[in-house]
Amino acid sequence: MTVEFESRYPTHPDDVKKYDTEQLRQHFLVDNLMQPDKLVLCYTHYERVLVGSAVPVKAAIELEAVDALKADYFLERRELGVINVGGPGKVVVDGNEYPLQTKEGLYVGMGAKDVSFYSDNASTPAKFYLNSAPAHCSYPTRHLTMDNCTVLQMGSQQTSNERAIHQLMIRDVVQTCQLQMGLTVLKPGSVWNTMPAHQHDRRMEAYFYFDLADDQRVCHFMGQPQQTRHIWVASEQAVVSPAWSIHSGCGTSNYAFIWGMAGENLDYHDMDKFPASAMR
């Protein structure tokens, strides 16, 4: 098993106005996720959230505390959210096994010392998407499924954004310190997500896109409402969104994405919305 680690530093919106395509991708796109037998970690300095992945094929993958964390073990001062977007697998937390089918999640609280990821079948490996944020206290580990989460039916066919928002890790479902995660699935014929677009001035957010054919893409919109920018995103890539940035996207087909948030409060609806007519 190998670990691939990188660190991303914050950007100011005035600077981002001057970024070209490559600079936008360098600072905000995480395009190296879901590599076989690798623990991939991207440490963002936005709320110090880690975006990562683990795809165990030949052997289990351990959640290692890389040197940059300055911790004895990964979750010494952190909490973790895991969502499986691949084949069946399991996560073992301090000796306790949690089977995860596709689109199921696991919340792991601060203080868990040994976390490992496994696939049931190497030919159809599990693909674990990870978000981790600093924590101030320890909450119990919790297995989260499509049946025990809150589901919001949003949008319509007329506006091409009919979608189901599965709130896996929010305050009404599971207790966390600051991490929130969920999974949005767009219906066939719908391509727009998170419209009207919005900002979370008190939270950062990361979007992980998946269930998208190899020859299809999502155009992810970011930036300030009056200074929007875009990044073309392939399946199993993520975009990091600062608090000052909107986050929305439009695909060349329907798709799914995982949203993860961390910041000052746990009110899911704490957002500043911007209708399409206000965007530039």
From TrEMBL:
<feature type="binding site">
    <location>
        <position position="198"/>
    </location>
    <ligand>
        <name>Zn(2+)</name>
    </ligand>
</feature>
<feature type="binding site">
    <location>
        <position position="200"/>
    </location>
    <ligand>
        <name>Zn(2+)</name>
    </ligand>
</feature>
<dbReference type="Pfam" id="PF04962">
    <property type="entry name" value="KduI"/>
</dbReference>
<feature type="binding site">
    <location>
        <position position="247"/>
    </location>
    <ligand>
        <name>Zn(2+)</name>
    </ligand>
</feature>
<dbReference type="InterPro" id="IPR007045">
    <property type="entry name" value="KduI"/>
</dbReference>
<dbReference type="InterPro" id="IPR027449">
    <property type="entry name" value="KduI_N"/>
</dbReference>
<dbReference type="InterPro" id="IPR014710">
    <property type="entry name" value="RmlC-like_jellyroll"/>
</dbReference>
<keyword id="KW-0479">Metal-binding</keyword>
<dbReference type="InterPro" id="IPR021120">
    <property type="entry name" value="KduI/IolB_isomerase"/>
</dbReference>
<protein>
    <recommendedName>
        <fullName>4-deoxy-L-threo-5-hexosulose-uronate ketol-isomerase</fullName>
        <ecNumber>5.3.1.17</ecNumber>
    </recommendedName>
</protein>
<comment type="pathway">
    <text>Glycan metabolism; pectin degradation; 2-dehydro-3-deoxy-D-gluconate from pectin: step 4/5.</text>
</comment>
<keyword id="KW-0862">Zinc</keyword>
<dbReference type="InterPro" id="IPR011051">
    <property type="entry name" value="RmlC_Cupin_sf"/>
</dbReference>
<keyword id="KW-0413">Isomerase</keyword>
<comment type="similarity">
    <text>Belongs to the KduI family.</text>
</comment>
<feature type="binding site">
    <location>
        <position position="205"/>
    </location>
    <ligand>
        <name>Zn(2+)</name>
    </ligand>
</feature>
<dbReference type="GO" id="GO:0008697">
    <property type="term" value="F:4-deoxy-L-threo-5-hexosulose-uronate ketol-isomerase activity"/>
</dbReference>
<comment type="function">
    <text>Catalyzes the isomerization of 5-dehydro-4-deoxy-D-glucuronate to 3-deoxy-D-glycero-2,5-hexodiulosonate.</text>
</comment>
